[in-house]
Design brief:
Blueprint (H helix, E strand, L loop, with lengths): L4 E4 L3 H11 L3 E4 L5 H7 L8 E4 L9 E3 L3 E5 L4 H6 L1 H6 L1 H9 L3 H6 L2 H6 L28 H4 L20 H8 L3 E6 L2 E6 L4 E2 L2 E2 L5 E9 L5 E8 L10 E10 L2 E10 L6 E2 L1 H7 L6 H11 L11 H15 L3
Parallel strand pairs: 1-3, 2-3
Antiparallel strand pairs: 4-5, 5-10, 6-7, 6-10, 8-9, 11-12, 12-13, 13-14
Helix pairs in contact: 5-9, 10-11, 11-12
Bound molecules: flavin-adenine dinucleotide (FAD) and iron/sulfur cluster (SF4).
């Protein structure tokens, strides 16, 4: 690993000031489970001069439940989110998503902010520099997308245009289904937006002098039924080949509202709106779930090696919709 400075930030304002003063040469670090791997393998042509440590900011790891909903500081650990009795009871999709991430050791270090901001896992993008030179591809601003003609078994089947790396975050789809908002702090103050609007095909909307401060989740109604299911190749430590998070409002046996997001299949959390339209207003029986499963993959454009993901998504959607708890 090349040398870099390490500066502890004492407040969000201080972290933003440091980002500003170092220009593009400062990088935030929270749990370090993603960013340190990126630096160690030197996958990016630009190497930071300094890591700005957020863990020294007091209070930014809190998890607070109120009548309104849940506020989670960006530094809250995935392990704490997964084991919180309140989150298990009221926001099980998030609890299950956090618990599905990596291993207990990583969840003890990894933060929710870092999980949402982590970089992609495309194996061309992550190719280590010490093994013959990093691969400069479209996402790095130079060169083609190697996945298009290469081994694309884990890449996007939906929404890919210039880069087909999938959004790797498990918590992202659960939080989108729960209608979470994200609070961003930066040089121009605080802005809050629906989490869905945070993600872009090439990452997220964070400006160079901004950080994620908090996640806000409205309290689900009593009628809410939630599911999170993740399909992996290796259990238990693996990224999603495909995953689903759904939040359904069931009243008198009818599905009054539905939010369905897919993971592991697109550069961003994929909003399966066509599937939602099919189930809204009716009862959730086998034929309806089957129809919604088909709709969830309508328009998918698989690459040469990943059409198999479409069958997995259909099975996950059906399973999640027919789940009874
Ligand atoms: C072996 C392994 C298996 C994994 N499996 C999974 C998995 O199954 N599912 C999954 O979702 N993830 C998985 N991950 C990824 C892991 O969840 C992330 O590495 C972790 O969540 C990142 O959190 P962190 O706090 O360590 O972030 P860091 O590594 O500290 O930072 C990650 C990125 O986010 C930025 N960042 C961090 N905090 C903030 C903030 N508050 N505001 C703005 N930017 C910020 C950093 O600058 C950096 O770019 C795995 C990782 C490993 C190593
Ligand atoms: S999928 Fe994206 S990250 Fe991977 S090689 Fe193509 S452009 Fe690069």
């Amino acid at each position: 690993m090349m040398p870099f400075d390490h500066v502890n930030a004492g407040s969000p304002g201080e972290a933003v000031d440091l980002l500003t003063s170092y220009g593009g040469k400062g990088r935030l670090i929270a749990g370090g489970t993603d960013v340190l791997g990126i630096l160690k393998d030197r996958i990016l042509p630009d190497y930071p001069d300094v890591l700005i440590n957020l863990k020294t900011i007091p209070g930014m790891d809190s998890i607070k439940e109120s009548g309104e909903g849940l506020n989670i500081g960006a530094l809250a650990k995935l392990a704490d989110i997964a084991s919180s009795p309140e989150i298990k009871a009221e926001y099980p999709a998030l609890s299950l998503a956090a618990e599905s991430v990596a291993s207990p050791e990583i969840r003890t270090m990894a933060t929710i902010g870092g999980n949402l901001c982590q970089d992609v896992r495309c194996w061309y993008y992550r190719y280590p520099h010490h093994m013959g030179g990093r691969m400069l591809c479209f996402r790095k601003g130079v060169g083609p997308c190697y996945a298009v003609k290469g081994d694309n078994r884990y890449h996007a089947v939906m929404g890919g245009k210039k880069c087909f790396a999938v959004c790797p975050s498990d918590t992202a789809i659960a939080l989108c289904a729960l209608q979470a908002k994200i609070s961003i702090f930066g040089g121009e103050g605080t802005r809050t937006l629906p989490l869905e609007k945070f993600f872009t095909p090439m990452g997220n909307v964070l400006r160079s002098n901004e950080l994620v401060k908090e996640i806000l989740i409205p309290k689900p109604t009593q009628e809410t039924r939630q599911a999170f299911i993740k399909f992996t190749e290796r259990k238990p430590v693996d990224f999603a080949v495909a995953s689903i998070a759904c939040v359904l409002e069931i009243l008198g046996g009818r599905c009054m509202d539905a939010r369905i997001y897919l993971g592991g299949v697109a550069p961003m959390p994929w909003h399966a709106e066509a599937a939602e339209r099919i189930i809204k207003g009716g009862s959730l029986d086998d034929p309806t779930a089957e129809e919604a499963a088909l709709a969830s993959v309508a328009g998918a454009k698989p690459l040469k090696g990943n059409a198999y993901k479409i069958e997995i998504v259909k099975a996950l959607v059906k399973r999640a919709l027919l789940r009874r708890q």
